[in-house]
Design goal:
401 residues, mainly beta, Leucine-rich repeat, LRR (right-handed beta-alpha superhelix), Immunoglobulin-like, 3 domains, five-stranded parallel β-sheet, five-stranded mixed β-sheet, 4 helices
Amino acid sequence: MPTPFLITGLIAFFNVVSPFKTLNNVTISNGVTEINESAFESCSSLTSIVIPSSVVSIHENAFADCNKLADIYYTGNEQQWGNIDIEYGNDQLYNANIHYNYISGSIDFNNPSGICGNNSKWKLNLDTGILNITGSGDTQGNGLAQSPFASYSKYIKTANVSNGITSIGGFLFSGCYNMTDVTLPDSLKTIGSMAFLDCDSLTNVNIPDNVTSISSGAFSSCDNITRLVIPEQVTKIQTGTFGLCSSLSEIVIPESITEIGNSAFEECNNLSDIYYGGNKDEWGQINIGNYNDILKTATVHYNSGFAKSGTYTITDLSRTTNGIEMSVHSNATPIDSQQAIVACYNNRILTDVEIKTISPSDIDQIITFDIDTTNATLIKGFIWNNTKKLLPVSNVYSLEQ
């Protein structure tokens, strides 16, 4: 976790040496009048600094190669800042955000925060690695390595985007290589270009049903994502959207898709199963761009898709001489690889369980389970989607003794 560093005295010291090269946040106390030549040169981890209004001179190369310096908290006003003599080699001071009239102690450097859209904010807890994005409307990225929290990307482990946010801006999470989980809201409509580029540790992404557009390269080089479901309102898989997702093995593509752009699945060499919502003829009509050779070798399961909560129901759960019978029904297109489960309990203790894989032909039919119910005081039937555990089918049917 980055630690704030306090500098006191009249002159900020001449060239920061190891281990101070790894400083993230620096506070220069009031009374310091000059920041000497090369004082913070090559402090490549420096993201923010507090500069008091007592400073009148910033000498040559004081902040040279401080490429991550994003925020300057200045205790004076804009006019006073303009009167500081800033010498050659301090270009980053002109690129950083300057917060005027800063009140000493009002910034919590262990919980950095900021604005990421007209009506959205971000806040990161550096102890837990949890990033929260709140507000409404769009979030905005500013290009590669220029998202509002790019300076802290390596500390982000989990991201939560609150309901009300409608867009993930381009490059917003790019380079968050330690982020393993992200929660996206039902209000989300669009995911921008390169939004999750190089999120190497990301394993699961549940793209909300209301998303209508996923832009080019949005999930490019997400090495550890294994399964994805494209929402039914999306009509085009853009150029490079899932390129270089080397662990991607299963994906659901809805029948709404009419075009798959160049390199959308380039080098997704582990992609083995495609669950397509339409039939074989409809799949053949999709305009598939170049460098998507894996789509020719993967197994395409037609009239398929991952089940969603509430689409399957169980009725007629009953005891038989040899075990249990029940019927499974669906109000959506049935899919392969569903699991029907019967569990027996005695005084709420699980005593036996049987699992059967069911196919579309089993829907609306009686399914028989050979299970000992002699001592069961409670019997439950479940349907579970075993191909994507993040989306269990919610219906549970109980039969008590």
